[in-house]
Design a protein that fits this description.
CATH superfamily: Alpha/Beta hydrolase fold, catalytic domain
Strand content: 15-25%
Oligomer: single chain
Number of strands: 9
Distance between the termini: 42 Å
Radius of gyration: 18 Å
CATH architecture: 3-Layer(aba) Sandwich
CATH topology: Rossmann fold
CATH class: Alpha Beta
Structural class: alpha/beta
Length: about 290
């Protein structure tokens, strides 16, 4: 049942058939800058507690800057997409399944053909950044390039500590009510994300090995004040993907599209317009 606090903001829905990795799914999606019908597509992959609504107007702003169309969707368990059943725990490789199964199935359902996919960019934040990296690794011939914003490629203590603190806030403050504005089933969204990250089995999760197969242009962005991960995340990307470009933002936390949108948009636009000319590591200051 839809949460009445979530306004119907022109979302559409796509039904995906069951596969070996998931049951039938209804995926909430939305096109932005849709009038640019022949432009390349940018697919936006949200964070661990994100949804279409939580992006707000950033995808629209960035797509207008890039001259692209944007496909924004809520992953299963989030927004108005099929909720996670409360007795279901996500597996350690849940992000791999998102890149391998869910996103390709959605592209198929929306009739996004191979020619369009070769011009497509994936732009992901946090868990979505990890999914963007995995998609780039798994589908090297179906992508123009990828942007990973505050991604995770392995689990750090700082991540687990911050996620444990978020659980306490969710259960003792009004955080649950605030998140409820963005998800039809807020407990499904929160505990799906929180439980897997706090699962001891997840401490050994890593996608570092998968990075080696990324061939297309790749930009990785991290804020210096990120309380969910250190620069070791994107530095590791730089080590494993020599052609990757790194941008490190001052005065910026875990959400550069909210903390430093001008600096982030400039970095992405510069990279996509001329990825081969971008410096290997660019310190960028966000406006004070």
């Amino acid at each position: 049942m839809q949460n009445p606090a979530i306004p119907p903001l022109a979302s559409e829905f796509s039904d995906l058939p069951a596969t070996a990795s998931h049951g039938p799914l209804r995926i909430e999606y939305r096109w932005v800058n849709e009038t640019a019908a022949t432009a390349p597509i940018a697919v936006f992959l949200h964070e661990g507690l994100g949804s279409i609504a939580m992006w707000r107007d950033w995808p629209q702003t960035l797509c207008e800057r890039l001259g692209m169309r944007g496909l924004v969707y809520s992953r299963p368990g989030y927004g108005l997409s099929t909720p996670r059943e409360h007795d279901v725990k996500w597996p350690v490789d849940f992000m791999t399944a998102q890149a391998r199964d869910i996103l390709p199935a959605l592209l198929d359902a929306l009739d996004i053909g191979m020619q369009e996919r070769t011009r497509m960019w994936v732009i992901g934040h946090s868990d979505g950044g990890s999914i963007a990296l995995l998609y780039a690794a798994q589908h090297p011939d179906e992508l123009a390039g990828a942007v990973a914003i505050a991604p995770h490629v392995f689990v750090e203590d700082i991540s687990v500590e911050s996620i444990a603190q978020t659980k306490q806030l969710y259960e003792t403050t009004d955080l649950r009510n605030k998140l409820g504005r963005y998800h039809a089933d807020v407990d499904s969204a929160f505990y799906g994300w929180n439980d897997i990250w706090l699962n001891p089995a997840f401490r050994t999760w890593s996608i570092v090995g998968e990075l080696d197969t990324i061939q297309q242009p790749l930009l990785a962005v991290q804020g210096h004040d990120d309380n969910y991960g250190t620069m070791a995340q994107i530095d590791t990307i730089g080590e494993r993907v020599p052609h990757a470009q790194l941008v490190k933002l001052d005065a910026c936390g875990h959400s550069p599209h909210r903390d430093a949108p001008d600096a982030l948009n400039e970095a992405i636009a510069t990279f996509i317009k001329s990825p081969s000319k971008a410096p290997t590591s660019t310190p960028a200051r966000s406006p004070k």
